[in-house]
Amino acid sequence: MNILEELMNERWISKYRDRDKYYRIKDEINEVRPFLVEKLGYRIISNSSLVKLEKLPGEALPWMGIREFKDISDYALFCVILMFLEDKDAEEQFVLSQLTEYITGNYPEGQMSWTVYANRQRLIRVMKFCMKNDLFVMDDGNGDQFVTDLETEALYENTGLSRYFARTFTRDISANKSVADFFQSEWLDMNEDRGVIRRQRVYRKLLLSLGLYRENGQDEDFNYVKNYRSVIENDLEQLVDATLQVYKSSAYLILGETGDLGKIFPARNSLSDAILLLHGEIRELVESGGLNVEVNERINLPLIKLEEIIRTTRTKYGSGFSKAFREMPDPEFIQTIVEEMEGLDFLRIDQVTEEAEIMPVAGKLTGKYPDRYLERKSGEETLNENQ
In terms of C-beta density within 10 A (0-12 exposed, 13-18 middle, 19 or more buried), how is residue 168 classed? Predict the structure, then answer.
């Protein structure tokens, strides 16, 4: 894994976690600094504790966020914990009861009662995320027991890294009402012309999103990719083992054998197999006229119709799935598939209208079982009918 991949794949490289990697990254970061600053417009934080690349997406998508968190209240609780740590020095210790008292006093009144089981679960979930990211460490005790025992105590130590978790804004953000407002503030802070902003937005989309899609006929980001394709390919191929593939209304950065930029699909598991088979089923429906493809190469259909296709795929290929997937109830199986597809941005769902939008990449990443498997399965079904 090269330095760019390490910076893109990790939240930060801390001396606390890996001293050797920390010093190596500090020594080598100037090799990629021009690309990160000029092409992506990213800020690099490098100090005595960590090296962090502030990775901002080209656009906000539903799958972006902290996967461990279940709902908005988890984020709110996390922000209160960051406030708590803000007043602590590095290596300063605190006990669990200090944290819970602070949260009670600073969370909206009446909304964080520790006698509520769900609140205790939420706290432990968020604290585990904090420890996973080295915001603090456990020195003694077992805080997990707080879920079942309100009298549980545990000792923690602040690492001092929490102050680098959230972005530092140079403008007042209190008036921001939407995600778009934050993006607009960032471009204003950069004080750059539209051409530079567009270039940085395109590079961010290619590196941090599954693909870059044409949203309309005059989409300036997609047109930029088409017009400067060779330049983009040259920039990226010098730093990452990847190739740029451009289609009618979408573009993708396809990793080579040694490329490593985050989550990779397909993974070597049954869930990826099931999704590839589902994509194959969708493609067959398109070719037979059962589904219509829009001008932008996307498929729009009711969520209930998508669930029906998932059930059909399972009926057709389910005997080849892992035992866990074969025995999983239909609703759970459908939910697992849908959540994974949303997380990969293969699928976007409007919860208000209950409409599903299948993205173009679904037609380009498909799979099927060997013919001999289908022939054997067909033979078994015929035998069962005769019996």
Answer: exposed
Phi, psi of 141 (to 5 degrees): 90, -170
- DSSP secondary structure string, 226-262? HHTHHHHHHHHHTTSSEEEEE-SSEEEEEE-TT---S
CB 46 within 8 A of CB 207: no
Q: How far apart are CA 9 and CA 11, in angstroms?
A: 7
Alpha-carbon span 162 to 332, nearest angstrom? 36
Q: Which residue has the tokens 């740590």?
A: 85
Residue range 192-250, pLDDT digits in tens: 678 888 999 999 999 988 889 988 766 889 999 999 999 999 999 889 888 999 988 89
Mean pLDDT, residues 167-179 taken together? 83
Three-state SS at 194: helix
Average pLDDT, rounded, for the chain = 89
Which pLDDT does position 383 carry in this prediction?
A: 42
**pLDDT above 90 as % of the chain:** 63
Query: E-assigned strands of the chain?
Result: 13-14, 43-46, 50-54, 93-95, 136-141, 154-158, 212-213, 242-246, 250-255, 299-302, 347-350, 355-358
Helices 194-208, 179-190: inter-axial angle, 10-degree rounding: 130
**DSSP state at residue 30:** G
